[in-house]
Each structure stands twice: as structure tokens, then as C-alpha cells.
Amino acid sequence: MSIKFPEGFLWGGATAANQFEGAYNGDGKGLSIQDILPKGLRGPITAEPTDDNMKLIGIDFYHRYKEDIKLFAEMGFKVFRLSIAWSRIFPNGDDKEPNEKGLQFYDNVFDELAKYGIEPLVTISHYETPLALSKNYDGWVDRKLIGFFENYVKTIFTRYKDKVKYWITFNEINSALHSPYMSAGVWTPKEQLSKQDLYQAMHHELVASALAVKIGHEINPKFKIGCMILGVPNYPLSSMPSDVIKTMQQDRENLFFADIHVRGKYPRYMDKFFKENNIEVKMEPEEEEILKNTVDFVSFSYYMSSCATSDTDKNKKGEGNIISGVPNPYLKASEWGWQIDPEGLRYILNQLYDRYQKPLFIVENGLGAVDELIIDENGNMTVNDDYRINYLNDHLVQVADAIEDGVELIGYTTWGCIDLVSASTAEFKKRYGFIYVDRNDDGSGTLKRYKKKSFNWYKEVIAANGANLKEK
């Protein structure tokens, strides 16, 4: 088969404010939950920001955005996914008036992207709930956050109505099941959090997301507003029927968030789960109507697949990002234990499109690895990251197959298109980018940018609209 991507396909890269912006307390910005999480999602929460938190400086995109966007333009990006730091706009989350300097920063970034014809794809809430909302309200457990979020989205939708077309409400919203602090700003420790409060918090996020869709379409009917889930397709570990049923249950656990975003109501299969776990989601009368404001597209991250089994002896979870499962014996893993499965991307694209018949958007995919900076034959500093090129090539070939299968796909943004701080481990040595940033886990480094070998490879892929990808 010849590789074909649709005309106008949006090629680009993805980032998150808390992992690359820096300037964590500059120009009126308040603290976010990330500013006291120096070791990533599995690490301890500190009382105050500490010097070992790599995210406080990130890669200083806040002051270097023109340089970085120029590099993205050189690669030929059609789209750039970034998030707005809620606490840069409303420092405490519940402030009456927004921070003008924060609003102006994103104006400047969007104007710079427009200069090069790059479409912004903006995540409204990407694991960076204002810290004050987490501490004072227990994050999304409190219904009041819906109103604070409503004020936030009205502010940014109105301000950027002519500069941004594509929006994502919450990053990987289903991750709240596994990391309630990171995903939903829940201050109560995970081991003390009841299932009732967890699902109530997620309900509030779902209502807020639907409300954002409603508000956005009223402010600008041309807005395209999507949801986002952490995409982890599940395979039965064996053909034993109980393993197939377990796989169905794990899929439902991950996908019920998207089901609500697309269908505008809770799926019936959750009735049994709620009953068995003594969960009664409290829903105000108007919220049932609000949920009917469904998304324009479904976006997702994809890094790995997992297996499911009903056999408790074999049900040992492997390494993963936030959601992990039983390792697949047929797959190899990355340096961080994430199983590499290009065909899984084709599978989940078909699974989601069959389920929803909505346009899809791959907004994260990539390989975290330890990169070695070297001097090439021309005397330039670079990284020979053929392993990254091979990983992305193999995944994109499967994307092309999914498009051939009939999947409607808007675009593809690689995660960490420029090196940034890892969300799961808060390390810098775990690099994803096409652009190497001179910064190390001990805080040393000049922050200078260098093009990796993959930089020119991706540039060529975009220029050829994927036609030069190599099939195996």
C-alpha cells in the first residue's frame, strides 16, 4: 500500500505549560499543583516549591517562545499543541479578575504562531489545577470548581476567539482514576479518598467540560472543542472467555469518560459498577442537560497497550505512564518499561472511530529515551536518535493504515516535540523531542537548543505529507 495522509492533515508537536514554560511565579502567576510535586506523579508533595523541582524552570519557553516557535516552523509544523496555565490567568483559581500579564503572554505566543501559519491546539486544563483550589476546596471534589472553571473558560474563549480554533478541555481526563491529585487537583491523599468522592470529582470535571463546549460554541460557533483521554488499548492475555470479559471491563473503565463526552449521558454499564461500589453520583437537575453539549472531536494520547486477565496470579502490572496493565509477552519495552506497540495505535484508532464516528486527533505519541549529545561531521552538536525515528515511523505507518481503514483523523502531534520535564518522573534525562535542550537533572545546563537527527526526519515527513514513511 502507498502511504497516504489526507490533504490538510495537521502535523505538529505537543507540550504542557507546567513541563516547559518555567517562570512558575513570574508576572503574577500563582502556584499550581505541579509546583510542589518535584518527583512527578509517584513522588511526594512538598510544603513549598523546592529547588529540585525541574518544572519551576522547565526549558524557559516563557522567555524563549520566539526561538522555539521558529524551530517548529522550520520543521513545517501545521499545528502546535500547548496548554494555558490556569494559575497564570487566575493565580488562585477563584479570583474575580484575571491576570492581564498572563493573558498577554498567550496573546504573544498565538501571534507568533500565526506569523508562521501554525494553528494552535490549546488544552485548557493540563494537570495544572491552581494550588489554592486544591488546598482550599479539595480540588474537583467540590462542585464550586465548575463555576471557577466556567469563569476561566469564558475569559480565555473571549480573549482568544479569533486566534484559536482547536481546544481540548481536560488532558487525559480518565487519568483521575489513577492519579486524582495530578489529574483533578484532589488534595485528599489517594489512599484516603473514597470512591464516592473520586467519582463525584470526575462528574464535576465532566460537567465543566460540557459547559465549556456550550460556552465556546456560543462565543465562536467555528470553535472545534474536543475531549481527551489517555488511550491504552487492552488485549486479552489469553483466549479464555473470562480474560475477554476482563478486557471489556478495563476498556469500559478507560472509555466511559469519552462515552459521556460524545453521547451526552452516562452509559448504562456504569449503573452496575456504581451499585456494586456504593457510589451515588450527585447530579443537579441542570447538569443532565449540560452534559448533552457533546464534543466536536475525540483526542487521545498513545504510548503503549496492555493486557487484561482474570487470573490473579498473572495479574501483575507492568510499568506505565499513569494507566498500566499486564505486560504483553510478545512486545519489547522502552528504557522506562513502556511496551512498544505500533499496531496498537491502529487498533485504538479503529476502536474509537467505530465507537464514536467522530473525528479523532492523536495529540500525544512519542518515545522517551536517554539522548547523547555529540558533534557531527560538520562540527554541529546533535543527537543520533535513530531509535526515535524508527519508533515514530512505525507508529505513523500504522496511522496511515488506520486512515485507509476509514478512520477520520484531524492530525498528529508528537509528545514533547522539544525536550521538556517528564510528568511521570519529573526527570530531564527522559527526552522525547526533536530539539535537544541543554539541561540536566541536577539543574545544570545552558538551556541552549540543538537539532537532533529526528528534526530533519520529521521535517521531511511533514513536507511529504507522510509519503516517505517506510513500511516494513
UniProtKB/TrEMBL annotation:
In terms of PROSITE patterns, this protein maps to: GLYCOSYL_HYDROL_F1_1, GLYCOSYL_HYDROL_F1_2
Q: What is its EC number?
A: 3.2.1.86
Q: Which GO terms describe its cellular component?
A: cytosol
Tell me if Repeat is a UniProt keyword of this record: no
Gene Ontology molecular function, alphabetical: 6-phospho-beta-glucosidase activity
Provide the active-site residues from the annotation: E364
Entry keyword Hydrolase: yes
Question: For this chain's UniProt record, which GO biological process terms are given?
Answer: carbohydrate catabolic process
Q: Which InterPro entries match?
A: GH (IPR017853), GH_1_N_CS (IPR033132), Glyco_hydro_1 (IPR001360), Glyco_hydro_1_AS (IPR018120)
Q: Which UniProt keywords apply?
A: Glycosidase, Hydrolase
Entries under Pfam families matching the protein? Glyco_hydro_1
Q: Which family does it belong to?
A: Belongs to the glycosyl hydrolase 1 family.
**What's the protein here called?**
6-phospho-beta-glucosidase AbgA
